[in-house]
Please model this.
Amino acid sequence: MPATRALLPLVLLMALQVMVCGGACVEVDSDTEAVANQGFKLGCISCKKRGEVKATASVSWFFQAWDDNVSSELYTYAEREGKVMDPRFYGRLHWNGSKNTEDLQDGSIYILNVTFNDTGTYQCKFRRMLIYSNSIYETNPNKTVIMKVVPRVTRGMASIMSEVMMYVSIIGLQLWLLVEMIYCYRKISAAGEEALRESAAEYLAVESESKEVEVAE
Model:
């Protein structure tokens, strides 16, 4: 079918992209709305641009409360060990990033029992050392997350629109499949009718020849 053949290259391309990107690092922005008395992940991903280059990295987090003018060091993670630096987060902060490696690309942390006092600006700073055969090159990517604490889960317009688009896509796909089924049925039906007409024409032709032969005899 023409429509199916036209979509086949697109499907193959998407599958190839998934296979290629399946194990790749993807930089995803952190959520920014936390719910009071629940846990919250502060995401911070910094992908290494050249995967074949050996590297080591450390991560430092800084926090500036909404009613404060300065930021303070919140957390550090280096050589597979983390340390909470801000007393306000003692016993409530855990490493949620890359594990069992010094080549860190995910520097996320997790806050337990979020309070309204945790509202503010969080900054995640990487210190990455790229180790080449004859040199070492340092990079310092950083991410900023402005976190808001709310009393209960709220749904933003982006979330609502995403859900609406998901349902629209599902309905659209189902309609497309229905159209394809009708198109295929009509093609098969038309082909069957054509075959029947050809068979009938051949039968009539044979009958006509037989009668002509009988008359001639």
Notes: Strands lie at 33-35, 40-42, 54-65, 72-78, 81-84, 93-95, 109-111, 120-131, 136-139, 142-150.
